[in-house]
Amino acid sequence: MDYIELAYVHLATIFLAFLIGTFLLLKRKGTRFHKQLGKVYMLLMLFSASVTLFMPAEIGPTFLHHFGFIHLLSLLVFICVIAAYLAAQNGNIKIHKANMLGLYIGGILVAGGFTFLPGRLLNGWVFG
Fold this sequence. Notes:
73% of the residues lie in helices and 0% in strands. By secondary structure, it is mostly helical. It has one domain.
C-alpha cells in the first residue's frame, strides 16, 4: 500500500475508534456491553497504530529514514492498550481507567491534533 492508502485505512479505523471511545467514556462502565465494545475499541486502536508504523514520517528528523517523533504516539498506544487490558483482567479498574483515558487523550486527541499542523497531510486536505 502506498502512503495515501495507508492514510485512508488509518483515518477510517481511528475515526471508528474515536466514536467508540467517546461512547465508552460517556456510558456506564463494567457492563457486558462495555467489555465487548471495549475489546473492539482496543483492537481498532492497535490496528490503527500498527498501520502508522508503515507510514514514513514526512516532517522533522527521522530514525532509519522512516520513524519520526509522531511514531512515539503509536508506541504509547501499544503500551496503554496492553496495560489497560491486563489491569482489567486483574481487576485493577483504577489502572485500567487511567490507561484507557491516556489512550483516548494521547492516542486520539493529541495525535489527532498533530495531524493538523502545517506540512501534515490532513492539514493540506482540510486547509488546502
